[in-house]
Amino acid sequence: MIRPSNQAPTQRQLRVNEEIHHALAWVLERGQFRDPVLAATPITVTEVRCSPDLRNATVFFTPLGGQGNAEALRDALTRAQSYLRHELSRTVEMKYLPRLSFQVDTSFDEYARIDTLLHRPDVMRDTAVSDEDGDDQDADGQEEGDRHDA
């Protein structure tokens, strides 16, 4: 039976995601690559998502500290896929190791963009809680003087 792709991942998928994530992070941390792009730039693996049949895995990564060209790193990781799968096969025990595809993780950039928007003066002014507007209520919706301690 084929599961719809919009359902949450199974426990097995989650376990395999974490195993591949840790093993791949360890391989990338060692940095034993012939490719100068991979050897020169530290990479952080942020997430691994396996398909429901565990045949394919998408690896989300970001250059550590934002240094380096993310697209060049993705191309270098794609070229090194067979080496990475070979190294993963030494630590991850599975009948079939998933094919790896690499995607640049943009969630940190999105977080920074949203954080910048939230700290703009006009947004800060709109979201600030002020007592000048007559908001003398606490979190329970009671006036400050109406509270009775039992």
UniProtKB/TrEMBL annotation:
It holds the Pfam family RBFA. Residues 125-150 are annotated as: Disordered. Belongs to the RbfA family. It comes from Novispirillum itersonii (Aquaspirillum itersonii). It is found in: Cytoplasm. This is Ribosome-binding factor A. NCBIfam families: PRK00521.2-5, rbfA. The keyword Cytoplasm applies. Monomer. Binds 30S ribosomal subunits, but not 50S ribosomal subunits or 70S ribosomes. The keyword Cytoplasm applies. GO terms for molecular function: ribosomal small subunit binding. PANTHER family: RIBOSOME-BINDING FACTOR A, CHLOROPLASTIC-RELATED. InterPro entries: KH_dom-like_a/b, RbfA, RbfA_dom_sf. Keywords: Cytoplasm, Ribosome biogenesis. One of its GO terms (biological process) is maturation of SSU-rRNA. GO terms for cellular component: cytosol. One of several proteins that assist in the late maturation steps of the functional core of the 30S ribosomal subunit. Associates with free 30S ribosomal subunits (but not with 30S subunits that are part of 70S ribosomes or polysomes). Required for efficient processing of 16S rRNA. May interact with the 5'-terminal helix region of 16S rRNA. Residues 129-143 have a biased composition (Acidic residues).
